[in-house]
Structure formats: C-alpha cells, structure tokens
Design goal:
The complex is a heterodimer of chains A (223) and B (225).
Chain A (H helix, E strand, L loop, with lengths): L1 H7 L9 H45 L5 E8 L2 E5 L14 E6 L5 E11 L4 E9 L4 E9 L9 H4 L1 H4 L5 E2 L5 E3 L9 E3 L5 H28 L1
Parallel strand pairs in A: 8-9
Antiparallel strand pairs in A: 1-2, 1-3, 3-4, 4-5, 5-6, 6-7
Chain B lengths: L5 H15 L12 H6 L4 H24 L9 H23 L1 H7 L1 H4 L5 H9 L6 H31 L1 E2 L2 E2 L9 H4 L1 H29 L4 H8 L1
Antiparallel strand pairs in B: 1-2
Helix pairs in contact in B: 1-8, 3-4, 3-8, 4-5, 4-7, 8-10
Classes of the chains: A alpha+beta (223), B mainly alpha (225).
Amino acid sequence: MQEETKQIIPSPEPEPSSFRLVATLGLAGFFSGLVLVGAFLYTQPIIAANRARALQQAIFKVLPECTGFKTLELRGGQLVVLEEGAEEPKGGEEPRRIYAGYNEKGQLIGFAIPGEEPGYQDLVVALFGYNPREKVIIGFEVLESKETPGLGDKIMKDQGFHANFESLAVEPAITVVKKGEKKKDNEIEAITGATISSKAVGRLLDKSMAEWRPLIEAYEKKE
Amino acid sequence: MNQPTSIEKSRTAEEFLKGIWKENPVFVAVLGMCPTLAVTNTAINSLAMGLATTFVLFFSSLLVSSLRNVIPKQVRITTFIIIIATFVTVVDFMLAAIVPQVHKELGAFIALIVVNCLILGRQEAFASKHNIKLALADALGMSLGFTFALLCIGVVREILGSGSLFNISLFGAGFEPWVVMIMPPGGFFTLGFLLLFFNWLQKKRKEKIEGDRPVTQYEEAREFL
C-alpha cells in the first residue's frame, strides 16, 4: 500500500539534466543495436538455408522428374552457369537467375523460371517449369502472394487451376479464359471469383517467357 | 529476504488471473484489435501471433519494470518503444528462422506488434509502476488472455471458413466453406459474437453472485476504491 501512496504525491526530485535524458536514450539505442545485431547474425544463416531449401523444393515441384539443377545467372545479356559454392554478391542489384533441371541420367529436362506480377493485393511471385523441346509449361508454383484468402489464394493450391500447367503451350501467347471455356493448349482456365489473380498469373507467365525464351534458346545452342 | 506473505502471493495471483478473464485484453478491454482481426483466419496463425505477443510483452515488462527507477519519466515512452521494438524485431527474425511458413503468412503483422496498444499500455499503466514479480504476473496473464482470445476467434473462423482445425480437415470434401469467415468481415462477425457471449456470461455471473449472498463489507470497500 505504501508504494501506491508514494506515487500519488508528486515527487519533489529535481528535473533530470538534459545530459541524463540524452544518455538514457543513447544507451537504450546502443543496447538495442547490440541485441538486434546479435539476433540478426544468429538467425541469418538459418533464414538463408530455409530460403534455399524452399527454392529447391519449388524447383523439384515445377520440374517433375528433376533430380538436380544448375543455377544460371544473367550476365551481360547471356546465361552463365553459376558454380556451386560461388560467393553471393553483396549489395548492388539482385542477380537474375533461372535454374536448369536435369533428370537421373543427366539429361536436361527443362528450366525453372521465376517471375513476378502485381495481383489483386500485392506482387504474386511464382516459379514455373518450362520444357523448351515441346515449348510447354510443365509446372507452376506460387512462392509469395497476399491474394484474398479463400478466393485469390486459390492460385496457390487449387487443383483444377494447377491442372492448367501440366502442359501449357507458350505459343503464340498465353491467354486467360473463363472456367469451362478452354479450347486451345495455350489457354488458362481462370478461377471463378478470382479472375484478377488468374489473369496476373497469365501475364506473369507470358512476360517471363518473352524475356527468358530467347536467352534460353541462345544458351541451348551454345551447350 | 522475507518470506512472501499470503497477501503478497494472492496479489501476484490476482494480477496474473485478471488478464486471463476479468480484464481480458480482447474480450473486456477491446485492445489490440489490429492483430485480433487481421491474423485470426486460422488457428495456427492466431496461436503464433499470441505467442509472439507473449514473448514481447513478457520481456518488455521485465525490462521496463527492472529499469523503472532509472528511466527518467520525460523520455519513458521513447525508451519503452525502443525496448518493445527491439523484442519485436528479435521475434521477427526468430519466426523467420524457425517457422518460415507461419512467418510468411503473418507477414507485416509481426512487425506491427510494435504498435499493439496492449503492450505499450501495460508498460505505461503497470510495469513502470510495479515491482518485477507483479509486472511479470501481469504480463503473463495479459498475454495468455490475449492468446486465448485470438485462439477462440481463430478456431471459429478456421472451422467455418476452411472446414478444418490446425490444418486438419474436419468435415471432408462435402463441406462448402464459408469463405466470408476467413476474410475481414468474418473477423468482425466472430469478434462481435464472442464479445456478446462473454458479456452475457459476465452479466449472468454477476447476477448470480448478487442474488446468492449479500455484498460483504470487503467487497463494498473494494468497489469504493
């Protein structure tokens, strides 16, 4: 009880000096910085490993039969194989990469290509598998999206929608049609109630293909 | 050190229990509505948000209470915010490292724990004025109450909106999920009905207590205070 009565009476203490105020905040900031840097250094390798694992799983998912992959980086207008264990560039622009998938016999079965496109809420980031021999998309996986739960987020797991990407022709261009109206190989059936998200996926595939196809063809010729 | 008297013990217990039920931050005080409405679309997300908030509230209260005589009152809010923001960032890193899937789903709402008024409110109203033991009891009680409330909402929304609980399907393929329940309006509906229910429950209990026996002198005095 005594403690409580004390608080009601204003303390007769003199005002703290300006130095003390600044020092308090300075110290708080300093220790906060120490804790944050410690937590960052400790968790960063784990977070990076998580990301690499998620990417690897996504690559194996969009390229069925894939058992291993090489990372290709865009440098000076052409694709260069990135050696394993190569050091990550620090700072600067994020490197642009695609992944060449190989089967057990070491044959190239296709490329896993990332792409992003504004959806209904935010960027939809996805990875898809492309088979250059038959010029079809053979798998699709959303890596990041904030689409509406229950509607737009069906682009992530709706089986009917994902059936579109078992063999989707990329020529002449990918178009999105209403559910039940798919006639050609290059058409995606949209999800009912999620037309905007479905169209975003269509644009994503189309744009990425337009960008990467010439590079992939050049790379294959060189190989 | 003196042995804690029974009054002290009961005070600690009281500070702990009040947050869970009598002064539940969500159902009674209606604090921290942003995460309450935004991330309770599944039970897992609710639980993760509740635990993250518990971590932040517990350690912030510990620090604020132990430094309460050192921090000048002119800069106390700024200092509290620095302390809270530090723990929130730590939680953000930890969730990304340990449960990346949950971290991805909670997205920006983890960082927004910084501005959860429940946390700053407890520092300003309680931890900065009481000893460590009481502050921790208060922090634990409040955060358990918050987690409990989030789980209540999350469980209802996931069962109705996705037909599952903790990602385990409950009704099979024949169930048509009420999509609205996992969208923002579902959050308001569920919270509204739960508030109604808890208010009704409290009213019932009050009526029962008042009907059962006359008000004691002690209760009268407490009411007065």
